[in-house]
Amino acid sequence: MEVAKHEFARSGANASLDYIAKRAGVGPGTLYRHFPTRDALLEAVYQTEVDKLAAAERKFAQSMSPIEALRGWMLLFVDYIATKKIIAPALNTLVGGSSKVYEASRAKITGAIDALVERAIESGNIRKDLDPFDLLRALIGVSNVASGPDWQQSARRLVDILITGSQPIK
């Protein structure tokens, strides 16, 4: 999945599947056996990224302070957006559109940020009136209006600005 993600990011959704197989150290037949179509591979890469976000919420909550867990997860979300920007156009062409794919991922993503924000609110690190979805909207907004190659660096800076702005007023 990491090789496919990297190649899709580098070459776009039409990256060579044979090249992906070669870089992954498998034969083309093995790749096609697991992912019979380009769409199947794109969807699997997307789902892998969503699953990483969900797993990161649990891992970060166990190993970091509430505010650092939220910050770390938001930085991962920026990377997720980068992958989604590349894969989304192809996912939108799937039979029935991408709504089924996105519907399942939306619940995982909102569940993760809801849990992290709730934990940060309980710790007193984040103001009580913060809506977790507002943080997602802000990060998504940056990615949607960004046209330059440095939008990810800008989004990472925005994470720190959002965290600072979400702290209780003293």
Strand content: under 5%
Q: Poorly predicted ranges (pLDDT <50, ≥5 residues)?
A: none
CATH top level is Mainly Alpha
Largest sheet composition: none
CATH names the topology as: Tetracycline Repressor, domain 2
Assembly state here? single chain
Compile the SSE list and pairings.
Layout: H1 2-11, H2 17-24, H3 28-34, H4 38-63, H5 66-91, H6 99-123, H7 132-145, H8 151-165
How would you describe what is shown here?
The protein has helices at 2-11, 17-24, 28-34, 38-63, 66-91, 99-123, 132-145, 151-165. The protein is mainly α. The protein has a single domain (40-165), classed as Tetracycline Repressor, domain 2 (Orthogonal Bundle). Helix 1 (2-11) packs across helix 4 (38-63), helix 5 (66-91) crosses helix 7 and helix 7 packs antiparallel against helix 8. The longest helix has 26 residues, at 38-63.
Short description:
With 170 residues, the chain is an all-alpha fold. It has helices spanning 2-11, 17-24, 28-34, 38-63, 66-91, 99-123, 132-145, 151-165. It has one domain (40-165): Tetracycline Repressor, domain 2, CATH 1.10.357.10.
What labels would you give this structure?
single chain, 170 residues, mainly alpha, Tetracycline Repressor, domain 2, elongated
